[in-house]
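Board notes (copied after class):
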Amino acid sequence: MAQVRVGTSGWRYPPWRRTFYPEGLPQRRELEYLSRRVRSIEINGSFYSLQRPESYRAWAAETPDDFVFAVKGPRFVTHLKQLRDVAVPMANFFASGVLGLGPKLGPVLWQLPPRMRFDAARIEVFLALLPHTTAGAAALAEGHDERLDGRALTTTDADRPLRHALEVRHESFRDPAVPALLREHGVALVLADSAGTWPVFDEVTADHVYVRLHGQDELYAGGYTPEALDAWAGRVRGWLAAGLDVAVYFDNDAKVHAPYDAIALAGRLIPG
């Protein structure tokens, strides 16, 4: 049966404290609290810097058994290198502890910068590097450089499928070669709603759908109306009926809409 997971992009936001998070809740328990109310969360700290195995293991331990994390790939790969010569940086990422999530490791999100144009050859090389199993990720992690010496995790507790999603933000990716390449490599093209800031790419390219909701009327801040949530729920039901797994993450965190919107959408899809 196809599954849907609805959650938020991250969980550590000061404005959420004493609003969504109850008064007196210790910061160290915020993940525990949110993970009992949504079924998945994007780890976005991994975008800014390499995390450590002990962090990933702790996050896994703090969440319910059926919980799943999406993990955001590092901006060093996507924004600084813009996918050029990234075999070692990708090995460092996978060696940094991602595999410590064990069965709670969900899709890996690769978000490209708005300035990056479509380059078929560059995208093809990058897609070919992506590991599609945790055993493949462990093998890739073995290629890490000296920066990970003494702190690398290059083994997996079991060999599981590993999914990827690509979020693009430049109109040049409207090229029909893009979905063709992604289908060839089994990578989902992210459907992102960004209050009109970036182009919308709405095409299924894998056996799963990855949606990022950045704000209905205001980027990172606008909440979703009940009517908008009804419409998104309808889209999700359609994908599920087609046998596609679906992940939806709300990134409209600035005004504390994200957790409430995530819970509201999940309630439309999984009553009770």
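Comment from the instructor: The chain is about 35% helix and 15% strand. The longest strand covers residues 105-111.
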